[in-house]
């Protein structure tokens, strides 16, 4: 059987904050975001130090802007750490209350801690926005100095989103795939011609090869953060703006073209059967 159905390398995140499980999810998501962002921030520091050493002599205004942004980003991470600790403490209090509901369906009254939880979440979101905005502004300042500053996770995320959308096209022709496998099985048992069976077998191998190539690409894109970090040595790097793209960037672009072509080929094949 062909590996068509087990092709989902991407998961959809759900972000409502309405009950205890959603609070737990928010805490876990914030913890993960903080971990990765702290890792990014630490990787950015030596790049920033090098750039500041140059700009303090040549472009003092840029030096001042980078310094201010770096302080704001550091403060944002500190604020999130404190707010996350508060969120964890409130979650522990709530877990000790049996039959907990955030909003009573009869009276409409909310739990006393709900306002604090919501306000705390808003503070976390605001600090995250400050940090993410700081990265974008740093990228623009580096660009003024003819440098390309790359935060790998931010670069890779739209790639992953695009491939997630493309992967949905595989499900659009899933029924055709299942029907083909059924027809293939019947043909092998009903036909006595060895030549016919050989042709069917050849077609099946070719389709499997194409499907496996789709699976490999989706898996690679899912793991692209690690692949890129392994190549460049960190989750953040800088390079002269006119330098050639990194190997992982070129490979993604080339493989994406091939992925789209293979999807179209499969769709046409199944439509013709």
Highlighted features:
flat, disordered N terminus, 273 residues, 2 domains, mainly alpha, 4% strand
Structure description:
The chain folds into two domains: 9-145, no CATH class; 147-273, no CATH class. The protein has eight helices and two strands, in the order αααβααααβα. The chain starts with 19 loop residues before the first helix and ends with a helix. It has a two-stranded antiparallel sheet with strand order 1-2. It is mainly α.
Q: Can you tell me the residue ranges where pLDDT is under 50 for at least 5 consecutive residues? A: 1-16
Number of domains: 2
What string, H for helix and E for strand, traces the elements in order?
A: HHHEHHHHEH
**What's the tally of helices?**
8
Percent helix among the residues? Answer: over 70%
Q: Structural class from helices and strands?
A: mainly alpha
* Mean residue pLDDT: 83
Large-scale geometry: flat
Query: Which strand-content bin applies to the residues?
Result: under 5%
Arrangement of strands in the largest sheet: 1-2
- How far apart, in Å, are the first and last alpha carbons? 18 Å
Summarize the topology.
Layout: H1 20-58, H2 60-95, H3 114-144, E1 147-151, H4 152-172, H5 174-190, H6 194-222, H7 224-232, E2 236-240, H8 247-272
Antiparallel strand pairs: 1-2
Helix pairs in contact: 1-2, 2-3, 4-8, 6-8
Task: Summarize the structure in short.
The protein has 273 residues and is mainly alpha-helical. The protein has helices at residues 20-58, 60-95, 114-144, 152-172, 174-190, 194-222, 224-232, 247-272; strands at 147-151, 236-240.
